[in-house]
User: Fold this.
Amino acid sequence: MNTKDRILETALSMFSEHGYDPVSIRDICGAVGIKESTVYYHFKNKQDILDSLFIRFEEHVDSLLKVLHSPDAWNHSQSPSFGWIDTYFFDQYLLDPFCNRMMRLMLIEQLHNKEIQQKYSRWLFEEPYRIEMSVFETLSQSEQTGKGFYAYITMLVFKYLLNGKLTARKKNAFCEEAHSYIASSFGFWEG
Amino acid sequence: MNTKDRILETALSMFSEHGYDPVSIRDICGAVGIKESTVYYHFKNKQDILDSLFIRFEEHVDSLLKVLHSPDAWNHSQSPSFGWIDTYFFDQYLLDPFCNRMMRLMLIEQLHNKEIQQKYSRWLFEEPYRIEMSVFETLSQSEQTGKGFYAYITMLVFKYLLNGKLTARKKNAFCEEAHSYIASSFGFWEG
DNA sequence: CATTATATCTAACAATCGTTAGAATGTCAA
DNA sequence: TTGACATTCTAACGATTGTTAGATATAATG
Assistant:
């Protein structure tokens, strides 16, 4: 991996744990193994690192959304289902290491940054709501059922995926409780 | 209000918006209208301010819990009900300005402070779960129903009460959606 | 080899951080 | 009024922050 990418990866890893301000350029450089001034060859300033991370994140998620909304995704061998949510929404979004770090970063920074607050609302509440409700609509489930599911997943996200580092234990707890909720609410879980 | 209390109030107000580290002693002093060294007459150091806030919070919440678990609370004119949740759990905890600020502070700091992470888990997930489930048990509702309610309230808490300053608009949105969920799920709302 | 462009380094800057010593007030009892 | 104590001030400290100018090294090109 080149230096620029290593800076981004290290910065995200540290930002997602401590927030933007508490992590210094020197902290990042120490972890990457470079001198401070090298950062300023690749980035305009510290803020530029943060901006670059958000650009990458939104590119990543936009492409994910395009897949979700493409006719292919819905006319597949398996129709939209809970298995589909499992594969795309859970594994490739909520549980994805990059996306998870970005969400934790947004969770911290939204509290004092109006711009990030909008991104936070969008990517943690609005888009997940849209996705899950459209799945439930296709499954001909009631709106009330969809909202209940959405609320339960959102609660689990905050309980397990957005408190500190994402460990295998937390991932498992999230998946287990999500699956068990679905099983007891809908009586089935098709993979 | 004496200087010590003014320092605590101002500090909490600023900590809950920006986090602990980004707020400097000078920021707090500027807002209170005192010089930096005065803080060190009332507190051992900056950490001591944070500790004092948590002591006050846990005293506050412990006394609240005592009321909730006392026989009086349950043998009142109105039996434990959604109205009871509204009065005690919503107004005096989730929507209370002091508690809300403390929760936002915990939300920020839990990400890089193991001690606060435990408090965060306790006061935002475990205790609310215990309270709501005990109410639902008394109401002879199914465990599944209680969990659904808990998840919905938790989701609303994060959506409206823990993103940025708590405004009247957010308070209203929270109450409205909570009441409408209860109304459509249980068909009644007794004040 | 000489030249140019790319990448990283050394070394410092002004600003801000938490904290402290010690002087200056204010308050109240003797 | 004097003395004791409580409270706030002035003024600085060493450390750390984001950032920059300029030297140095590496790689590619002629």
Summary: The two ends of chain A are 35 Å apart (CA to CA). Chain A touches chain B at residues 16-19, 21-22, 104, 107-108, 110-112, 117, 120-121, 125, 144, 147-148, 150-152, 154-156, 158-159, 163-164, 181, 184-185 (CB under 8 Å).
